[in-house]
Amino acid sequence: MLKLHSLAYSRAIRVAWLLENLDTPYEVIGYDRTEAFRAPDALKAVHPLGKSPVIEDDGLTLAESSAILRYVDMTYGGGRHEPEPGTRAYFEHAEWLDYAESTAAGPILAAAMDKAAGKDTAPEDPRMAAQLDTNLDYMADRLADRDFVMGDTLMLADIQMSYLFSLLEMAGRLEDRPVLAAYWQRLQAHPGFKAATEKCGPMSPPSS
Ligand SMILES: N[C@@H](CCC(=O)N[C@@H](CS)C(=O)NCC(=O)O)C(=O)O
C-alpha cells in the first residue's frame, strides 16, 4: 500500500486530499514538528532532503508535492485531475500547478513567517510585500469568474494552491481579498480536503 510520510502542519495534506478523491488506500506515517518547528531527523532516513511530503509506492520514493500529485493522479486516477495532455488547457494548468511552489511561494511564505514572528507588517520587506500584492492580484483576477483555477472542476493546481491559502489566512492576508477568501472557503469545504485533514491534521497551526 502507498505510504505517505506526513509532517504535522504540512503540505502532505495535498497528497492525502488527492488520494481521498481517488479512493486509493494509503497509510499515513506521521511526524511531529521539533520545538523549532522543523522536520525531525527521521524524515532524512526516508528521503535525503528530510522534507514532507514523501511517498513510497511500489519501490518508488518520491518527494516534491507537485511531482507526487502528478504521479498519484496518473497512476491511480488515469490523469483525471489534469486537462487532456497536449492541449492548451493542459499547459495552462501546468503553469498554475508549478506556479504554486515557485513564484507564488516566496512572498506568501515570507508573509506567514513574518506574521508568526510578530512583525507589524507581513511581509516586512517592501520588495516581498510588492511581490505578494502582484501575486494576490494575479490569483484574484484568475478566480474572479470561476470556482477553481481551471473552471468548475477541482484540479491538481487547486490542491497544490491550498497550502498557500492556509498560509495567507494565517498571515491575515485574505481579509481584504473577498475573491480569494471565497476560493479558500470552497477548497476547505471539499469532502476530500476534510477527509485528508482528519487523517493528517490541519495544514497550519492554530493562530495564537
Ligand atoms: N517544495 C516542496 C516543499 C517541501 C517542504 O518544505 N515541506 C515542509 C513542510 S510543509 C517541511 O518539510 N519543512 C520542515 C523543514 O524544513 O524542516 C514540496 O512541494 O513538497
What can you see in these coordinates?
The chain has a four-stranded mixed β-sheet, covered by helices on one side. It folds into two domains: 2-81 and 193-200, Glutaredoxin, CATH 3.40.30; 88-190, Glutathione S-transferase Yfyf (Class Pi), Chain A, domain 2 (Up-down Bundle), CATH 1.20.1050.10. The longest helix is centred in the middle third of the chain and has 18 residues, at 126-143. The protein contains eight helices and four strands, in the order βαβββααααααα. With 208 residues, it is of the alpha+beta class. The model has no long low-confidence stretch (mean pLDDT 96). Helix 1 (12-21) runs parallel beside helix 2 (65-77). The structure holds glutathione. Glutathione binds next to loops.
